[in-house]
Automatic annotation (TrEMBL), chain A:
This is Xanthine dehydrogenase. InterPro entries: Ald_Oxase/Xan_DH_a/b (IPR000674), Ald_Oxase/Xan_DH_a/b_sf (IPR036856), Ald_Oxase/xanthine_DH-like (IPR016208), AldOxase/xan_DH_MoCoBD1 (IPR008274), AldOxase/xan_DH_MoCoBD2 (IPR046867), AldOxase/xan_DH_Mopterin-bd_sf (IPR037165). It holds the Pfam family MoCoBD_2. It comes from Streptomyces nigrescens. PANTHER family: ALDEHYDE OXIDASE 1-RELATED, XANTHINE DEHYDROGENASE. Keywords: Molybdenum, Oxidoreductase. Residues 29-133 form the Aldehyde oxidase/xanthine dehydrogenase a/b hammerhead domain.
TrEMBL record, chain B:
Keywords: Oxidoreductase. Residues 1-222 form the FAD-binding PCMH-type domain. The keyword ATP-binding does not apply. The keyword Oxidoreductase applies. PANTHER family: OXIDOREDUCTASE, XANTHINE DEHYDROGENASE SUBUNIT C-RELATED. SUPFAM superfamilies: CO dehydrogenase flavoprotein C-terminal domain-like, FAD-binding/transporter-associated domain-like. This is FAD-binding molybdopterin dehydrogenase.
Amino acid sequence: MSPHTFPLGPPPYPLGEPLVRREGREKVTGAARYAAEHTPPGCAYGWPVAAGIPRGRVAAVDTAEALALPGMITVLTHENAPRLAATEDPTLSVLQEDRVPHRGWYVALAVADTLETARAAAEAVRVTYETDDGADVLLRADHPRLYEPEEVNGGYPGTRERGDFEGAFAAAPVTVDATYHVPPLHNHPMEPHASTAHWSEGHLTVYDSNQGATKACEDLAALFKLDKSEITVVSEHVGGGFGSKGTPRPQVVLAVMAARHTGRPVKVSVPRREMPAVVGHRAPTIQRVRLGAGNDGVITALSHESATHTSTVTEFVEQAAVPARVMYASPNSRTVHRVVPLDVPTPSWMRAPGECPGMYALESAMDELAVQLGIDPIELRMRNEPDTEPDSDRAFSSRHLMGCLRDGAERFGWSPRDPRPGVRREGDLLLGTGVAASTYPVLIVGSDAEAHADRDGTFRIRVNATDIGTGARTVLAQIAAGALMAPEDRVRIEIGNSDLPPAMLAGGSAGTGSWGWVVHKACTALRARLRDHVGPLPADGFTVAADTRQENSERSPYARHSFGATFAEVQVDTVTGEIRVRRLTGVFATGRILNPRTARSQFIGGMTMGLGMALTEGSEMDPEFGGFAGCDLAGYHVPACADAPRIEAYWVEEEDPHLNPMGSKGIGEIGIVGTAAAVTNAVWHATGVRLRDIPLTPDKVLPHL
Amino acid sequence: MKPFGYLRATSVEEAVRAAEGRPGARFLGGGTNLVDLMKLGVERPGLLIDVTRLPLDHIEELPDGGLRIGAMVSNSALAAAAPVRERYAVLSQAVLSGASGQLRNTATTGGNLLQRTRCLYFQDVSKPCNKREPGTGCPAREGIHRDLAVLGHSPHCVATQPSDMAVALAALDATVHLHGPDGDRSVPVTEFHRLPGDHPEQDTVIRPGELITAVQLPPADRGARSRYRKARDRASFAFALASVAAVLDVRDGVVRRAALAFGGLAHRPWRARAAEEVLRDAPATEDTFARAAEAELAAAEPLRDNGFKVPLARNLAVAVLTELAAPPARG
């Protein structure tokens, strides 16, 4: 499994080449079909009814008016919907009981011949509620119901302590004690969550927009008490997910329910405005970071405490304090999570859960410490570079944070840098630069794949990977071609279908590593078989199946993480408080880059999303009515082109033999991780004002200028 | 589904006749606001009268040196028109600072003036709103209102008019031409939009069945310079937190004429008469400009979370007036 044996270079061994996306033409010409664009004959349309109260229960549902509409088929409610088996994800238990845990929870589904009728009927469904008083939707650091969970997202322990933090912090000559606020954030992929469900001759076919059709198939089988062989989930093209499609969402359950209930194919799409309430969000965090250091800048005490919310439906704890267990050496450390169940929509994964908000806080605190010490922020990080992973004492499989910082500093033109804040002016503009580190764990999950050699000299690879816009097909073809030592254009890739060999979902930056490994294994075995074979192939060719469960059954003896550094230059308008990023430079150490074109897209996409987190994106709960106050893209400001003028992504050469045959780490998430802190640190450098409540919109900035 | 009638009018007369006596009728221009609100269930017209094919898509030079802008002139065409760019820079800048290229290609001059005020509660039919359903209350006053009004609001409504174009038109003393069942009439653009008062459901003074046919600009003040500046959360495609449109004529260091209007602060474009009073014949200094802006904004009554708009508007006004008063850059 040494990466050195992996053929590299131009075709026919195209690993590392900037191949264009295989399905790019289909997508830009509109030929690629997404979940809602499949319309089986006789297809009906479902439109959900969202609860209009902060919390309570459904007392009665009057469907008479809705059902009287011409073309109406049925209205499903908790009273007549098919019964589901319980699964580990209670957000999928839709229409099973009268409880309304939060505003926007689905309480009914109108099903009709046309989308328009379904929608009109959904509006005509009269729901009477019993509203509980005292709905509680606001996270506070001193909320009396906060508790320390055993485990946080990712399976990490909620609390970790080493040494004596309090003693060391009290004794430290230089300290930082700061609290940072991250608001709820929304994934808002371009393609809303959508499903088309179709029963035919006892078999269920579902076209679903998700990040993993294997998981969707498993969950649907469990919910509807079916065998997995009775279900095919097709997710051929997916218009983004950013974590919000990692596991099934309610619309697929509603579509299958309605299809079963009506005996017709049924299509359900989540309206954009309803997405925040039902597809998950990044939970808000209130993070207190305390750092104690000697005058030499060596950290002796590190505490990262994160308070967050979850819903009353299920416990999801954003693991914001986890990256502090990886980043910097400190003999005394405590990392603590607290969570409070509120009457809010259920939070879930959003690009780099944990690392993204956690590193915003930690890297802001590091910048504050550098300022206190009068040490350059890059130098401070160098002085606290650990020899082993601080929390586990495991050796790093590779760690090139310093290389990223050095390389980035050179490319960005970091030095010479006047560390004084508020001294660079251009007319009304104040200018500043900032830097932050990033990290993201290497996750690999055992998967299955098949490699088939056809008589005509072509190959077919079958693996249930998902392309959520990343270029998965393309990179898998490159990996397969490399392992087969065959030209890439002779390799066909079949993904996005649960009938294919089961594989890891497209999440946790684990897709390419997990799929690529098993594809490599199957292809390597197929090549050996072809090498040993004499004469023409049999009529149906050769097929080799492989799985990588064994290889991934045990925890690696190495701490495996990606690292990176992001540099930002900002301008702050002293007239308006408007902040604009002038340029961002990211340098990443993520093992071998398998396709520079698609990798670059992932990095700059993540950085752009981080820019939005720093400056424009943020949501809030409505304390009076519950639910998120604003639910459309007119108010939830993702960066537009004009906000992202010059974003550059680079990577350092990194050889790591402890990963997978390709020597690659995941790249989908690390781009977002350090960006927000880089931008907000640059805002401090520009203005001398430390603002710890993102996004830094003019209302928050102007009063300090 | 919610059926509605659709009529493509071929003449102004036909359009107005079709609307007569039908309170559920709406004129359809670019539809960039109306269709959005229909999707949200806020607008439920019984009849859409498509006026986009009416022969109102020209910009006409008037004998007095002014311009007559047909109501169907697209926002893109308006911003790009040479006489607008050359003589009414503030208008071109304002239009270009609004929405996105795609929306400006579709949106019309008349429709831009008639876009509804914005507020989260107005757009969410599951919540009360006096504008949408008179008498149900205004949750924004105590609720989410960072983006809402600081001037001229009432206990019944704190929404803001989002049009950038209208702010420039207010500073330019434009006139709105209307044609209705009772014939033609004209309204100064500064009086076209209303303050909410006791009737927040009425955004403008337009009467039932009246159609905007044109917007007329008076001759440009040849000695004056003009500018629009807008502060917003995002570099493009975001509504104004506050904006200012200014026309300024300075001779020998003294303000000869000044027209100033604010956007993003009120239920209508806010023509700053009190500020203009301070500016008239005063020395064109930053101190004057600050006093002028403060004179206008003294009337502000910010809500809990939108107090930042007052210094923001002040800063914008001072910066824009200072820039306009400075000698033009060479080259």
